[in-house]
């Protein structure tokens, strides 16, 4: 169920718990990144691109684009359900510009769906403010309860 939008504290607790869930995922130890959820249906991941994520031609490999776009869209969608973890069922992405280094922001936005299937999009913006990639994903409710995941907790409560 979506957080009670009339209850700011309930929604805020859910958002902080999702931010903690992101930080607790072992894969995220590989990336200098941080998730922020400003409001329902939105997410923002700030990360740093450096030579560790380069392909042979000296720019960020597409895997970093996919990971950050997928995560941003996923968390934007998961703000709208407080009981279940969502799973990515499909994701389309478009590369616009290579990035060689610096801070990049992935901005996620929920588009539609609130019951079983959610659609969300994300875009990547480099330090110059240019869009470097964009993607749209479909996410389905899983059988995994958010409350069963050790990382899903709010430090406020």
From TrEMBL:
Pfam families per UniProt: 4HBT (PF03061)
* Ion transport in keyword set: no
> Under which EC number(s) is this enzyme classified?
3.1.2.-
Q: Which InterPro entries match?
A: HotDog_dom_sf, PAAI_dom, Thioestr_dom
Q: What is the top-level taxon of the source organism?
A: Bacteria
Is Hydrolase given among the entry's keywords? yes
* Domain Thioesterase, first and last residues per copy: 58-131
Record's keyword terms, sorted: Hydrolase
The UniProt GO MF terms for this protein read: hydrolase activity
Q: What is this protein's record name?
A: PaaI family thioesterase
Q: Source species, please?
A: Altererythrobacter arenosus
Q: What is the lineage of its organism?
A: Bacteria, Pseudomonadati, Pseudomonadota, Alphaproteobacteria, Sphingomonadales
């Amino acid at each position: 169920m979506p957080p009670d939008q009339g209850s700011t504290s309930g929604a805020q607790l859910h958002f902080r718990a999702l931010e903690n869930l992101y930080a607790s995922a072992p894969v995220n130890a590989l990336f200098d990144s941080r998730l922020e959820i400003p409001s329902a249906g939105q997410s923002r991941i700030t990360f740093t691109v450096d030579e560790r994520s380069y392909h042979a031609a000296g720019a960020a490999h597409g895997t970093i684009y996919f990971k950050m776009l997928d995560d941003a869209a996923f968390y934007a969608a998961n703000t709208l359900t407080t009981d279940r973890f969502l799973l990515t069922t499909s994701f389309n992405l478009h590369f616009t510009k290579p990035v060689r280094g610096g801070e990049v922001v992935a901005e996620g936005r929920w588009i539609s769906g609130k019951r079983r299937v959610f659609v969300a999009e994300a875009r990547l913006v480099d330090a110059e403010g240019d869009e470097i990639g964009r993607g749209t994903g479909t996410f389905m409710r899983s059988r995994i309860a958010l409350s069963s995941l050790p990382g899903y907790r709010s430090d406020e409560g």
